[in-house]
Design brief:
- It is elongated and about 55 Å long.
- A hairpin with a 5-residue loop joins strand 3 and strand 4.
- It has one domain: Double Stranded RNA Binding Domain, CATH 3.30.160.
- It is of the alpha+beta class.
- 40% of the residues lie in helices and 26% in strands.
- Strands 1-2-3-4 form a 4-stranded mixed sheet, covered by helices on one side.
- Helix 1 runs parallel beside helix 2.
């Protein structure tokens, strides 16, 4: 049986009240998108904001910070007309960025091991 992910996701809203539906949507998208890397993630911070307030426009911002073990944080921001779309796009980008960071780390570790291996006899 697979262990449930203990990934910590903290969601904050600025300049508006965070609804349960919006919180659940963000958590679902992030847990799904980052599940491949949950063993390497210390925490995920999400800040949702409405930049222009009631004036409207492309002003719904979703900022995501993924704190990884032994790697720099991954920071993503997306601004859209619709906050759900901003969350979706930012979560997708965070997932791809985390995957790239972990792949580079694996390649670096594998390359280091090859450098340390004894020379092959001809």
């Amino acid at each position: 049986m697979k262990k449930e992910s203990a990934m910590q996701i903290h969601i904050q809203s600025q300049s508006f009240t965070l609804t349960d539906a919006l919180r659940e949507h963000a958590e679902h998208r992030l847990r799904f998108g980052l599940s491949h890397a949950s063993d390497h993630i210390r925490r995920v911070e999400v800040r949702l904001s409405d930049i222009n307030g009631p004036r409207g426009g492309a002003d719904k911002r979703c900022s995501i910070v993924v704190a990884l073990e032994s790697l720099p944080d991954v920071v993503i921001e997306d601004i859209e007309n619709d906050l759900y779309v901003a969350i979706d796009r930012a979560a997708d980008r965070a997932s791809r960025s985390v995957a790239r960071c972990l792949e580079r780390k694996r390649e670096h570790v594998a390359g280091s091991r090859q450098d340390l291996s004894p020379p092959q006899a001809d």
